[in-house]
Structure formats: C-alpha cells, structure tokens
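Hallway conversation turned thread

IA: we were arguing at lunch whether anyone had actually written out Multifunctional fusion protein end to end. Turns out nobody had. So, for the record, here is the sequence (632 residues) and right after it the structure tokens. Reply here if something looks off.
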Amino acid sequence: MNVALTSVIDADAAVAAYLEQHERKQLLRFITCGSVDDGKSTLIGRLLHDTKLLLDDQLAALEADSLRHGTQNGQIDFALLVDGLQAEREQGITIDVAYRFFSTDRRKFIVADCPGHEQYTRNMATGASTADLAIVLVDARKGLLTQTRRHSYIVSLLGIRHVVLAVNKMDLVDHDEAVFARIVDDYRALAAQLGIPQVTCIPLSALNGDNMLSASTRMPWYAGTTLLEHLETVEIDDDRRDLGLRLPVQWVCRPDQNFRGFAGTIVSGAVDVGDEIVALPSGRRSRVARIVSGDDDLETAVRGQAVTLTLEDEIDISRGDVIAAADSPPEVADQFAAHLLWMGEHALLPGRPYWLKIGARTVGASVTEIKHRVDVNTQEHLAAKHLELNEVGVCNLHLDQPVTFEAYADSRELGGFILIDRQTNATVAAGTLDFALRRAANIHWQHLEVDKAARARSMGQTPRCVWFTGLSGSGKSTVANLVDKRLMAMGLHTYTLDGDNVRHGLNKDLGFSDEDRVENIRRVAEVAKLMVDAGLIVLVSFISPFRAERRLARELFDAGEFVEVFVDTPLEVAESRDVKGLYAKARAGKIPNFTGIDSPYEVPEAPELRLDTMAASSEALAEQVVARLLGG
Ligand SMILES: Nc1ncnc2c1ncn2[C@@H]1O[C@H](COP(=O)(O)OS(=O)(=O)O)[C@@H](OP(=O)(O)O)[C@H]1O
Ligand SMILES: Nc1ncnc2c1ncn2[C@@H]1O[C@H](COP(=O)(O)OP(=O)(O)O)[C@@H](O)[C@H]1O
C-alpha cells in the first residue's frame, strides 16, 4: 500500500475494489536525475498533478502558494509542490530520499525524489539502487553537463538498464528539432560508452506539459511516445541470470517454542516445500518444512515474495545470513574487488576501518588498495591515493568477516553495499561488489604451538601495548623512554616503537599526507601486535592523530592489553618547546601538513591515561604510567 493510495481510502466498498485493482497493477520504480535547474521538481510535480492523484487540499495549497510566490505568472508552479511535499521526507539512516507514489489505469509508480544540492549524488545513489528506470533531465539550452555524465555513470553503475533522456525546456529553444537531435546524438554516444542498453529520448516542456501526458502540437516532428505513455508501457525486462534460491534473512521469527521461522524477501529463484537448502556463511544444510506468508502456508514461493521459511532441522541461522539452494549456493568471501562511489565529506583513506553493510549484515571493512579512480566525464582511469566526495573508484576491499554475496551484475541485493563511518555513523559510500579476490581463500592461519600465554609465562609478565599519542614535541618519546628504562630495571621485557625511528626503515616510503599517516599507524599497530604476541610490553610513540586508526590499533588487541596514553600538551606549549625546530619551519610554510598547524590532531575521547605535561615532570608522568601497568 502506498501513500497516495492511502490518502484516497474511504470506508466504501468501491474504494476497496479500486485499491485492489491498483494492487494488481505492475509497479515501476524510477528516479529522476538532473542538475538543480533542469526542471526535475516541475516534472515530478506535473506527473503527480496531471495523473490526478494529487489530493484536492494539496492542490488548493499549491494554487495559493503559486499565487503568493508568483514565479509562474499566476499559473501553478509545480516545483513548489514537490518542494512542499519534501517536508514529509522519509528519513533513512542519514539519507534523505522521499518516495512519491502515483498510479494510472495501467501501472503504479514509485518515484524516488532525491532532494538536496551538494548531497545530491548520495541521495541519488540511494534512490537509484532500487530503481528500474531513470529519467535523465537535460536543459535543451545547455545540453549534456558534467552532472548529466556523473548521474548517468551512477545510473549505469547501479545497474539501471532503462533511461529516458528528457530534453526539457524545449519551449526555450523554439521547439527546434535540430537542438533535440544534437543532444540525443551526444547522449547516445555516452550511453553506449557506459553500456546502458535502452535509451528513449523525449523532447519536453515539463512546465507547459508538452509531451508529458499528451503529444505536443508544438513539436509535430516528434513521433515518439509521451513521457507518461513510455512510463506506462516500457517493458522492464530482467535478464539477469537465475541464480537459484537466495533469501537474505531479515529476521528470525520465534513467537513460541514450537515455531522458528526465517523471514525475508526472495531475491532470486524459487523455493518449494521439501527443497534442500544451505544456510550461509555457516554452510549447514536442511530442508524446507513450511513456507509461510501472512496467515497462509504456501507450497511454493518465487522471487519478490516476502515469506517465512521453517526448516526440518534446528540449524543456527541469524539475521544477515542467506538461505540458498543447496545445489547452487552463492560464494562466501572476505576480500573483494569493488566499485565505490565516495559520498563522505572526508576523503576515503585506504587502511581506515569502516562498517560495511550488505543486506542485513554489517561487518568491519577497509579498502586495502585503490586500483584507480574513474573520471566520470571521460571514463578514463586515473591514479588515486584517496577518493574525495563524489569520486568513483575501483578498490580492493578487506572485510573482517566473510559475507555471502553475488556480483552486483547478478544481484543488486547481494552485491550492493554501503560503507558507514564508524565515528559519525554517516553513510560515506555506495558500492558494488565485482568479484571475490581468490588470494584470501589460499592463505590459512598457521597454528603455533608456542602461544602468547606460554611466552608471557616464561617472561614472567603480562604483555601490553602502551600507545602514546600527542602532538609533535608533546613529550611522547621522553616519557616512553623513561617508562622503558624503569620497566627494564625491574627485569621486564620491553621494546619501544618510535615514529621517528620506524619512519627510517619499515615506513620509509610514507610521508605525512592523511593516507600515509593511516598506513603508518596501521603497520605500526600490526607490528606492535606481533610484539605483544611475542610476550613483550611494547611502548608505541607516534603522533597517531586520527581516532579511527587509534581505534583500529585498539581492536587488534585483547581486552585490557591496549593502554592508550594521551600526552596532553597544548599546541602553544609544544610549539614553544620546538625541540627539533619543526614548528618554526612549519609556520614558515616549509613543512606542509604539519600536525596542529595545517593537519588535524583528534584528541582522544577515552584514553586509559591522560598525562598533563604542564602539571608534572616527565619522571612523575612516567611513574604514573608504570603504576598503571603494574597495577592492572
Ligand atoms: N608534517 C609533519 N607532521 C608531523 N610530524 C612531522 C611532520 N614532518 C616531520 N615530522 C616528524 O615526524 C614525526 C611524526 O611521525 P609519526 O609517525 O609519529 O606521525 S603520524 O603518527 O604518522 O602522524 C614527528 O616526531 P615527534 O616530534 O616525535 O612527534 C616529527 O618530528
Ligand atoms: N612534563 C614533561 N613531559 C615530557 N616532556 C617534557 C615535559 N616538560 C618538558 N618536556 C620537554 O618537551 C620535549 C618533548 O619532546 P619529545 O619527547 O621528543 O616529544 P614527542 O616525542 O612527543 O615529539 C622534550 O624536550 C622534553 O624535555
């Protein structure tokens, strides 16, 4: 049931019949893309208005608003309508897409309306991920713009196979056929490059209604369909191959002891009672006992149906698992090649941990390598060390747990994902899985007979990673050195990893850009982990300016093993000490990206220890650290 239909419900049998008839109509999901002034809102407004599914009171309000704002000389301004409706936008996690519903005698429609200007790409990607068709709006006066190319690229990336090129504002180019023909040629060339299989081009004036619902008398040279007629009749073929049964489990339904069902929508194939299935990633097998849909039991269910399955055996399946045909199961992997559309305000940095959400599953993930960035204008592959807002790249991904997947080309549901910032919970990327990287499957953990506990026992100590973080010149090395000496004097086994030293060897290929710092800390954290595994107390002394990487480091260790020590020295003080003369150089512009000057330092939120270097001597501070280590 949809919003517009809900609004016309009346407690009257005729309405019920009408609704039922609507329910049976085929559904077309589409999205409109275009630059801000291309007339997107006017187009949606007119479709909603002219298909008469606008409510009378909305219409009255619109007429009043149009008169008040007066942008169209007393005529209805359809853009106001859509903008007005935006008040009731649906709230996604952090995504802002409103879905509008309307229907005609032949079909019902859901149009994803993606408002917002600078965040438009993000909203559009969200709307596009479920759409069958995209209307790409172009202003007849301007032709194809960078935005047109970017949006078309996203449309193709997200697997939309049907595009309507709506050449709008034909009234402003005297309804000139030659203008239309030129834009069509340009767009067909682009679509061919992007591999969009079906493009229908329509000359329009959304404002005047030309070729919207009825054929325009002002463009007799155009013999094709009107926009609405096309939307009503376009055949949405789905020629993706049948993969066999795929049911991502949305939730486990357990109303009482006797019933345990796995609910979700079948995204591929079909299922019969008695079929053998496999649950992934566990690989456990069973047979389907019942297929429940609402109050009914079904014998069979197919793609698109939301059902609850019960199984003959008690096997462990949780939300996010996939139930699949036992004879053609999907793959399970933790390393992938993927396309990413970056939507975060801050750049994507390889090595930084994010959450990856695929279907109902969320796992930790990082980009291990950016293969290249794609110029959305030319499709050229460009070298890239990071991805900025609205950039598209091809990357290798590493997940910290295996997931069940299909290539996006075969299944949008099992191949599409988003990345989420772990600090802000904002969605920072939309992505498509291309294929699994085989190397993961061929590397296994080697079991070692002598483990960390054995080594720690023989050394008579509890291994630890003591992580000093703070500005350059804050006192990290000074305090870490003193701690090291004291622990050594007590007969404990230690090692100090210091930024300045490690950067001469292991990390000599790295500089001070954000992405190099991320990689610097990732490597050092891994080395520290090996040293802790070896039974040592490791003192790590790096600026480590970003919360995300300190957290990454923390998560490598067992509970209690990681001790974060914030060496808290204000910038003015560190700068006045200027032990190495670096601040002076940085201020003079001779060292770019200097922490605290033109590169950020993110203060720790919950360190185990905070050392105030203004309030105590370095010896006293070292004492505090030692006391903390020996005390617990
Ligand atoms: N641009 C810039 N920014 C910050 N620091 C700089 C820079 N260029 C060189 N140095 C020197 O490098 C030391 C910091 O290296 P780190 O590995 O600790 O840095 S980071 O954790 O990757 O941010 C740091 O050492 P400490 O002063 O001991 O912190 C500096 O001496
Ligand atoms: N309370 C204190 N704790 C640590 N260092 C201090 C303190 N007071 C002054 N300092 C001085 O500050 C400087 C810190 O330099 P360093 O330890 O190399 O910092 P970092 O390793 O963080 O770059 C040293 O010259 C040190 O003597």
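OS: looked through it. Residues 472-473, 477, 499-500, 503, 512, 517, 520-521, 542-545, 580, 582, 591, 593-595, 599 surround PPS (ligand 1) (CB under 6 Å).
IA: good, adding that to the notes. Confidence is low (pLDDT under 50) at residues 1-15, 79-95.
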